[in-house]
Amino acid sequence: MPSPVHQSIGSIINREFMLSILNLPKNLQDQTVLMWEQNCNRFGGEWGGSGKQPDLAIQVLNANGDYDIKFVLEAGLTESYNQLVEDAQLWLEGTDEVSMVSLIY
Length: 105
Hints:
Number of strands: 4
Helix content: 25-40%
Largest sheet: 4 strands, mixed
Oligomer: single chain
Structural class: alpha+beta
Order of helices and strands: HHEEEHE
Number of helices: 3
Shape: globular
């Protein structure tokens, strides 16, 4: 279970993203969703069968009507830097949809 400090990092950044989304045109607001601490298991390749919960993620509606994760935030207060780098690698190389991962260490 994440510590209160760990959760506060996600909450602070989540609030800022929510405010930023409100500055988008209405059609883009409707296509953008924030998610946090939800299990994701759509990894392929050597990461097939893996599961991961992003501390925060931005999903965008694609042309098929599905939401793709485009941005992931990973805060690693109890993980080593190398573990965070491995998390980023999982997101970036284990999916076709994630374009950006931000690490907080």
